[in-house]
Fold Checkpoint protein.
Amino acid sequence: MKFRAVMNDGINIKEFLNVISTFSRMQKNLIINVQPGKLILQIESEAYDGQYLWCEIDASLRDGFFSEYIMDGIDSEHNQIYMTCLAASFLRALSYVRNNPVDYIKLKLIKTHMPCLAVEMSATISNDQDVLTPKIQHAIPITVVPRSEWNQYEIPHEVEYDLSIAMPSAKSLRTLLDKKKNLAPTVTLYATLNDELSLVVETEVVTVASHYRNLKCVPARKPTGGHEPQDQPTNLSEASCRVDTKKLATLFETINFYDMIMTANLRHEQALNIRFDMRQNAFVNYILPATNFE
């Protein structure tokens, strides 16, 4: 097995740091799935009963997110690598780039006394006399997941949703959810084909609703399979989903991507999916199941 990837675009490096930072707030273990054409980062979802968070980065374009991307999986039939590490360890390895520019970041699978993911970066330091370019290196211990356990980390790519609606700014939602998480354990999102999105929390004494208008809402396309000519839209004019307020708020507390487009997909009374489309063919997907607890 081998894996090597290089990032040398400053914004892409910051985006990558933001992804790892967000994931470390949600769960301690990070799963890294290396495929020939893409890199997938995800949190362990086994204990969360339908909650999924993952980032998919297109690695097929040399002028895309990665300037270099080489991998060789466990064998020709299963040309993938699954590895796990502590998200906090990965975040510490990248922490230098939070406030300092670097020329590149290189990720490489290595084996010393144990399997590790090496993180290397080149910094430029200037003073009155010299310009230095020291290399900063970290080795993150990883566990290579055997083929027999890959099915534990399968991501629900083909989920049927009813309505898809554009979302307001992350800053607006962050402020709103920060207030609502202290009012009630759940928040209900309502989307309508009138291009409206509402977030509602209910307590025994008060109902607080926040409304956003003039957001584009369309019927979501359902994956049909079989021999039907095209995906069929749902026939609902509105959809809602009640989810855990603190889990949703935690996501928006850390999300801070450049040029992102946010979309909410609702499966009526069953699941909420928020997709963050970033630059250079990368996106983050977050699925929260509907909850009924009081």
